[in-house]
């Protein structure tokens, strides 16, 4: 009996018939949804529209969103140089800065939650739970409003407010700060869970050869935790990249805002949304593929045979081969 038969019962004739019916209904429902979307944005669906079975209903309506002139702006190089590429650069800049800072934030506070010092554990836990519990959009708004809050505090203490222009927060700074604080707090829990998931024998063996906790954490636990938690880390970075679109609320010129301007200018909201979604999907798939490559590379590196002297083990500390088999030292008679 194969493993597949043990773990999964082969469906009988009635079950196969039910599955076929479910498949047909699913395909028909999906096709109906696509037809409604096509006809709706083609403006040939609803009151006053031609019959659904007529050729006029399915022909491309010049006034609809599927008309060729709605897609023509994306064939113009000026659309890409003036809108798409600058928005993409701003999105990638914000995402890259926030990713690096969020990983550093997550490592610091994730390790802080595992500290032997109770005060560090408490402060790290409070910081992580606080920023993880606040919506990202509120963090962006709070960062933008920081100069106003500082002036109000100065006035409350009887001090003159800051000179206009002395302390300003740019849209990029607000987006990066919000993304860093929120996603960094989530990554802190990811790193903490990954470190705790490493078998205890790894750290115990390192302590037994005289390594302190800093070396154990840096050389033993963190590399293994990062390798094992790579899918979760990349998934959070993908979320970070998509959340950068919230910068649209504070007029940050990122990718979504650029396509919104294109849709407003040319009246092609649906084609602009489709092109924008395709770009986001390509970026996220590329990021996921990079993570898979890194995971496989680390796995191959982890299977390498450790050499003598690695991780603080000196050649003199290694027991000669065969000494344990006879129970005698090599320099004793009958030893190897």
Automatic annotation (TrEMBL):
Keyword Transport: yes
Pfam families: BPD_transp_1
TM regions (residue ranges): 20-41, 92-112, 133-150, 162-182, 219-239, 269-294
Major localisation: membrane
Cross-referenced SUPFAM superfamilies: MetI-like (SSF161098)
Domain ABC transmembrane type-1: 88-291
GO molecular function: transmembrane transporter activity
Keyword Secreted carried by entry: no
Region (Disordered): 305-336
Compositionally biased intervals (Basic and acidic residues): 326-336
Cellular compartment(s): Cell membrane
Gene Ontology, cellular component aspect: ATP-binding cassette (ABC) transporter complex
Alphabetical GO biological process terms: amino acid transport
Mode of membrane association: Multi-pass membrane protein
InterPro entries xrefs: AA_ABC_transptr_permease_3TM (IPR010065), ArtM/GltK/GlnP/TcyL/YhdX-like (IPR043429), MetI-like (IPR000515), MetI-like_sf (IPR035906)
Keyword list, A-Z: Cell membrane, Membrane, Transmembrane, Transmembrane helix, Transport
Family membership: Belongs to the binding-protein-dependent transport system permease family.
Protein name: Amino acid ABC transporter membrane protein 2 (PAAT family)
Species name: Actinorugispora endophytica
């Amino acid at each position: 009996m194969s493993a597949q038969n043990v773990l999964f019962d082969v469906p009988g004739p009635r079950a196969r018939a039910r599955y076929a019916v479910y498949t047909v209904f699913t395909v028909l429902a999906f096709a109906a949804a696509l037809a409604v979307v096509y006809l709706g944005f083609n403006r040939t669906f609803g009151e006053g529209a031609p019959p659904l079975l007529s050729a006029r209903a399915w022909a491309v309506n010049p006034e609809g969103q599927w008309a060729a002139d709605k897609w023509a702006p994306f064939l113009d190089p000026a659309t890409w140089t003036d809108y798409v590429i600058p928005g993409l650069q701003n999105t990638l800049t914000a995402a890259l800065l926030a990713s690096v800072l969020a990983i550093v934030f997550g490592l610091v506070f994730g390790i802080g939650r595992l500290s032997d010092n109770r005060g560090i554990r408490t402060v790290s836990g409070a910081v992580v739970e606080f920023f993880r519990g606040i919506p990202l959009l509120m963090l962006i708004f709070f960062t933008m409003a920081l100069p106003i809050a500082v002036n109000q505090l100065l006035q409350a203490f009887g001090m003159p407010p800051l000179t206009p222009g002395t302390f300003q927060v740019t849209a990029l700074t607000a987006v990066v700060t919000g993304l860093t604080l929120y996603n960094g707090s989530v990554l802190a829990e990811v790193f903490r869970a990954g470190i705790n998931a490493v078998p205890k024998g790894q750290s115990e063996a390192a302590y037994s050869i005289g390594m302190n906790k800093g070396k154990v954490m840096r050389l033993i636990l963190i590399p293994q935790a990062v390798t094992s938690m790579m899918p979760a880390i990349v998934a959070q970075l993908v979320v970070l990249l998509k959340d950068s679109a919230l910068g649209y609320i504070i007029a940050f010129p990122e990718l979504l805002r650029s396509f919104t301007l294109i849709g407003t200018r040319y009246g092609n909201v649906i084609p602009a949304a489709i092109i924008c979604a395709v770009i986001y999907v390509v970026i996220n798939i590329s990021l996921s593929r990079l993570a898979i490559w890194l995971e496989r590379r680390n796995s191959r590196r982890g299977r390498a045979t450790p050499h003598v002297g690695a991780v603080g083990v000196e050649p003199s500390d290694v027991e000669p081969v065969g000494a344990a088999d006879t129970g005698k030292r090599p320099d004793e008679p009958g030893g190897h």
